[in-house]
Design a protein that fits this description.
Its main location: cytoplasm. It comes from Corynebacterium glyciniphilum AJ 3170. The chain is built from two helices and 15 strands. It has about 190 residues and is mostly beta strands. The chain has a domain of about 130 residues: Glucose Permease (Domain IIA). The strands form three sheets. It has an eight-stranded antiparallel β-sheet with strand order 10-6-7-8-12-4-3-14, with no helix packed on it. A four-stranded antiparallel β-sheet has the order 1-13-15-2, with no helix packed on it. A three-stranded antiparallel β-sheet has the order 5-11-9, with no helix packed on it.
Amino acid sequence: MEDTGDTGDAGKSSAPKTRDTRDTRDTTDTADATGTAGPGRRLGTLDVVTPMPGTVAPLSAVPDPLFAAGTVGPGMAVVPDPGVEYVTVCAPVEGVVTRLMPHLFLILTDEGLPVLVHIGIDTAQLDGQGYSLHVEQGRRVQVGERITTYAPLSIGRLGFDPIVSVVMMQQDGGVEEGLMPGEPSEPGDVLFRF
């Protein structure tokens, strides 16, 4: 599989397609003394990009009640394109990989915001089968850097849903959609803003 990194600009408008779904009751900068954001705290707007090609879906479409209800945090999901044997999942934000398992990774941004990428539903049961990691835990990564490659067709044949959830972990409020549910996505497209 070749990753050219070219996402192309053909047919894309220069104006972002967005819909604000954030809770606007409190959007003040309330960083604690460590400079990190705690639950419900926002430091500003963070662009979270699509980590892989596919079709955008709302978290409510994720067949896991914790993700679907927003219990883990607000975000969006990406369904891999049908018929694709291998998909490379890239960093949706810049930061440090603070947790890394074959089926998930957590990146802590410089602003202290944890961004979780969870690959598939109940896929921890696979013990890494169908996944190949490209980085190590503790590494600083750039937006678009390869983190893992997985096999959505194989995972699907084993009875697991290959949907990928991208979540602002343990944060309150909503996200401003960059891409609308049902739209195709390419790595580097703004998936949502937080």
